[in-house]
Design a protein that fits this description.
The complex is a heterodimer of chains A (320) and B (280). Chain A is α/β, with parallel strands linked by helices. Helices cover 37% and strands 28% of the residues of chain A. The relative contact order of chain A is 0.13. The chains are: A alpha/beta (320), B mainly alpha (280).
């Protein structure tokens, strides 16, 4: 796959303070990359550097094959939904998109047809003649995404696109994001701190903390990198707890504890630091052994295997 | 509702890549800025206020003329001076909203990520601000016509007003954009422009009976609005030829050149997400 975004040791300083430092990552065509981090981690600064709104203090980047010095070419190849983007309230949605189409060099007729098509894609065709001031927040976000696609970009940067949206609005925006990567084969760089969103749509994540990349890779790789202590809660019928304990005794790396106040729940923890065996694999074996022994599993809940666990561990470690 | 983005129209990407060469970004920005100014009602409100003020000034002037307190040439000069002064100062106020207003409304970043050069953004905004000056000038034509009937100075007065006013409006429009670029808040930008407006407007309103020494001369010639109006006055009232007092136009011309030059040279560093040449 073609690499469309390449950041190499990007650093941005304001006075003596570093907003981001030595940020490096790549993204390929058709990939959705989640840029994660707590507030103030440097997500927006990274996007502003890559979209040529800010200039890096040091480091380089390339977008769609254009070096960072070729700002006009980069701007022609990208679409951007900035964080808390404002909209001219007196313009209609259609007028707004046509204007931006023309800023990208489309003729009047091309801008008209592109805006009509995009407004339909984001579910705003019926409101194209309405003033933006009458749009809900979700509609504005969808309009902003449509604007980011008006030039058929190679790379789309979306900064907190679901911020302040209700669950239905979030789902709509996530569907649109998926289809940008799939139907248009564009790279999507998605900045967010809503982790379930990332797990749902992103093929790759970059975790930033205090302006530095603390992890990058696929969701699975990042979780693995975090070396989180995994545990599971196993609930079986009360009269079969002892039998379950006997089965679990066959796993030497497993620590078994009784859950406080819940006699039918066992807490299982894997202790294999540095063995290279993923705790998740052990848990799968445990589950298989329990069911093979004819013990009904009333509940099995894996903890520490989510991106949010890895995220919290990495960002809190960096703070400490 | 499941929303999905369709693949782009065939050839659109190529059109976008080639489009910048085909179209002038400044023209697109200017067109939209003018539409925003006039359809949002802001331009019309300013024009309406201008018309009310000009009507009042014309009424007072014609009354004075009827009572023989003013000669007809002086009446034309007074109304034209008022039209030019208020028209160009309205341009200053509109241009002062140009960049800081976009910053405050959160719409600047979407403009900055388009391939339109920063200088074209500035040029488009300046043209939109100048459209207000031309509109005020159009409104003032019938007033000047009413007062200038019979003395044969209508053409001269209108040509003078248009040339001098446009020159001063360009200078002040550029200053307004410079102020706007260095202010993060729209309120600060507008307040600074209104302050500048008062400074520039006050000398034009000094009673002619006041002692006019070297200090007044310096004040007059250093002020682009006052010196421009003095040039109009010297031709309309004193009957000087157009070359006789050209020195009065040095300040308006220098203002336009210096402020315009500063915008052209520093424009790409000034039109930024946050104020100041070193920001960002």
């Amino acid at each position: 796959m073609t690499i469309t975004v390449e950041a190499m040791q990007l650093t941005k300083q304001y006075g003596g303070r570093s907003a981001i430092e030595d940020v490096s990552f790549t993204a390929s065509q058709g990939e959705i990359v989640g840029l994660l981090g707590p507030n103030g981690a440097g997500k927006t600064t990274t996007i502003r550097l890559l979209t040529t709104v800010l200039e890096p203090t040091s480091g380089e980047f390339s977008i769609a094959g254009h070096r960072s010095t070729a700002a006009p070419e980069i701007r022609r190849s990208i679409g951007v939904l900035p964080e808390s983007s404002g909209y001219p309230s007196h313009q209609t949605g259609g007028e707004y998109l046509r204007y931006h189409g023309r800023l990208y060099g489309l003729s009047r007729s091309q801008a008209r047809s592109a805006s009509a098509e995009l407004l339909a894609s984001v579910g705003l065709a019926e409101r194209s003649r309405s003033s933006i001031s009458t749009y809900s927040r979700g509609m504005r976000q969808r309009l902003g995404i449509a604007r980011a696609l008006i030039n058929d970009p190679v790379v789309v940067f979306l900064d907190e696109p679901t911020l302040g949206l209700d669950p239905a609005g979030q789902a709509q925006v996530l569907n649109i994001i998926r289809s940008i990567a799939k139907a248009r084969d564009a790279t999507v760089v998605l900045s967010t701190h809503v982790l379930p969103e990332v797990e749902e749509v992103c093929s790759k994540v970059v975790i930033l903390n205090h302006g530095r990349v603390v992890a990058s890779g696929s969701v699975g790789e990042v979780i693995k990198t975090a070396l989180i202590e995994q545990s599971a809660q196993l609930r079986v019928p009360l009269d079969l707890v002892e039998r379950a304990r006997n089965v679990l005794a066959g796993f030497p790396d497993l620590t078994i504890d009784q859950a406080a106040g819940q006699p039918d729940v066992l807490i299982l923890a894997v202790d294999r630091p540095g063995t290279g065996v993923a705790p998740g694999e052990v848990m799968n074996e445990v589950l298989a052994a329990i069911t093979a022994a004819g013990i009904p599993v009333l509940r099995f809940e894996l903890e520490g295997a989510r991106l949010s666990d890895a995220f919290l561990k990495m960002t809190s470690e960096a703070v400490a | 509702m499941t929303l999905q983005v369709a693949p782009p129209a065939v050839g659109m990407s190529e059109d976008v890549r080639a489009g910048a060469e085909r179209q002038s970004g400044w023209l697109v920005v200017a067109e939209q800025e003018c539409r925003d100014l006039w359809t949002s009602g802001r331009g019309l409100v300013l024009l309406f206020l201008f018309s009310v003020l000009l009507s009042a000034v014309t009424y007072l002037t014609s009354t004075n003329q009827a009572l023989n307190f003013l000669e007809q040439r002086e009446s034309v000069n007074l109304v034209l001076q008022f039209a030019v002064a208020v028209g160009v100062l309205a341009t200053l106020v509109v241009s002062a909203d140009g960049i800081s207003g976009e910053r405050e409304r959160g719409t600047l970043e979407t403009l900055l990520v388009t391939p339109v050069p920063r200088r074209s953004i500035i040029a488009g905004k300046l043209i939109a601000a100048l459209s207000l000056w031309f509109a005020t000038f159009l409104v003032s034509i019938p007033y000047v016509w009413v007062l200038a009937r019979g003395v044969g100075i209508l053409g001269q007065a209108l040509a003078l007003g248009l040339c001098v006013g446009t020159l001063v409006a360009i200078g002040l429009g550029c200053i307004g954009l410079l102020i706007s670029a260095v202010c993060n808040s729209n309120k600060t930008s507008i307040a600074a422009s209104i302050f500048l407006l008062l400074i520039l407007f006050a000398p034009t309103q000094l009673p002619s009976g006041l002692p006019q020494g070297w200090f007044f001369e310096v004040l007059l010639r250093a002020n682009p609005v006052a010196s421009g109006l003095a040039y109009i006055s010297s031709m309309l009232v004193e009957g000087h030829s157009w070359t006789q007092d050209l020195s009065f136009l040095i300040t308006p011309l220098l203002t336009a050149i210096i402020a315009g030059g500063a915008l052209i040279l520093a424009g790409p560093r000034l039109v930024r997400l946050t104020r100041g040449v070193n920001a960002g």
